[in-house]
Amino acid sequence: MFNDDPTTPADDAASLTSDAVASNPAPSSAAPTQPAPGSGDAFSDLTLEQVKLALRRVKDPDLNLNIVDLGLVYDVRLIGKDVEVDMSLTSPGCPSGPEIMSDAERILKALPGVGEVTINLVWTPFWSPDRIEPRVRAYMGL
């Protein structure tokens, strides 16, 4: 072994190195592993924010506005990997209701890490234009 420090014998330097290795053993193989690159596993922890962002892609075809900004989404819950959404429609006779609800379900099921998706149609409180996001209301002239 080569040692530049004349005050430390080569054998002492070797023992210091072996002591450092002994006090800091290699990580156990039981430790959690990192997701494989490109596997998508790093993104499998679903968040409420991801669900709400996905729901912004669902549009009311009559108004061409997303259901979140329209105030049609009342509540979103994550239960493990399952997603539950309480939402309403602009009126009970909304002809686009089935399309909007199936679009919401389809988009949520496509998110990585999602289990079951439940879309609950609720009428309480009844939807009104007051539920529309203020910036969208201003855009619409309401």
Structural features, described:
Helix content is 30%, strand content 15%. By secondary structure, the chain is an alpha+beta fold. The strands form 2 sheets. It has a 3-stranded mixed sheet with strand order 3-4-5, covered by helices on one side. Strands 1-2 form a two-stranded antiparallel sheet. The longest helix is centred in the first third of the chain and has 14 residues, at 10-23. The model is unreliable at 12-23, 31-35 and 38-42 (pLDDT under 50).
How much helix is in the residues? 25-40%
Secondary-structure element series: HHEEEEHEH
Distance between the termini: 82 Å
Strand order of the largest sheet: 3-4-5
Please outline the major beta sheet.
Answer: 3 strands, mixed
Total strands = 5
Give the helix tally.
4
